[in-house]
Write a structure and sequence with these properties.
206 residues, alpha/beta, Rossmann fold, 6-stranded mixed beta sheet, two-stranded antiparallel sheet, 38% helix, disordered N terminus, orotate phosphoribosyltransferase activity, magnesium, magnesium ion binding, Or_phspho_trans_dom, glycosyltransferase
Length: 206
């Protein structure tokens, strides 16, 4: 499915104006219409799957990005001082949440964790503002499968002296990620479970 490239009218800009309950419903529809596909796929984890969620179709969509930021921001604990995630999937998510935080009068910086250290300059693993040791950071993830991607970000942040106690995802595929986080003492929640996405996808097909 495709979305219109026409300039939306003010009434169409639901991501900026909808209440959070409506916003969640509309974001779910966007995932179903633009990101969810069925077929034969190999995931980043190496697992085979009968479905795939092409999440950047939503997280880089203008309304999708704003909706993600608005919905994830309220899930952050009150003592959150920054958000972070593993490149590339988390890049638009942490950016959206950071931007929304300014409008909520609670500015929260965003960090991006490289998969490999930068090969030039500072040779850093972590990109973004320099924050003091002990900063409390929540790791954000797009689609959680085994949980390894976000855990890599968590470990990089802890190695840098930051405090990380929670991971928040957009979609939980229910394939071990939650259990992995629990095993290492991390709290976890996701905006959507895969069963909700699949149910709504089938409703929209009717």
């Amino acid at each position: 499915m495709t979305h219109s490239t026409e300039t939306p009218t003010q009434a169409d800009i639901w991501a900026a104006t909808a209440d959070l309950a409506t916003l969640r419903h509309k974001l779910l529809d966007l995932f179903c219409q633009l990101a969810y596909q069925e077929g034969d796929f190999v995931l980043a984890s190496g697992l085979r799957s009968t479905y795939y969620i092409n999440k950047t179709q939503v997280t880089l969509h203008p309304q999708g990005a704003l909706a993600v930021g608005r919905l994830l921001f309220p899930l952050l604990p009150a003592d959150t001082e920054a958000v972070a995630g593993l490149t590339l999937g988390a890049d638009p998510i942490v950016t959206a949440v950071s931007v929304v935080s300014v409008y909520e009068n609670r500015p929260i910086p965003a960090l991006i964790i490289r998969k490999e250290a930068k090969g030039y300059g500072t040779k850093a693993y972590i990109e973004g503002p320099t924050l003091p040791e002990g900063t409390k950071i929540v790791v954000l993830e797009d689609v959680v499968t085994t949980g390894q991607s976000a855990l890599k970000a968590v470990n990089r942040l802890k190695d840098a002296g930051y405090i990380v106690e929670q991971v928040i995802g957009l979609v939980d595929r229910k394939q071990g990620g939650a259990e992995l986080y629990q095993s290492v003492g991390l709290k976890f929640e996701a905006l959507f479970g895969i069963e909700e996405v699949q149910q709504r996808y089938r409703e929209l097909l009717v």
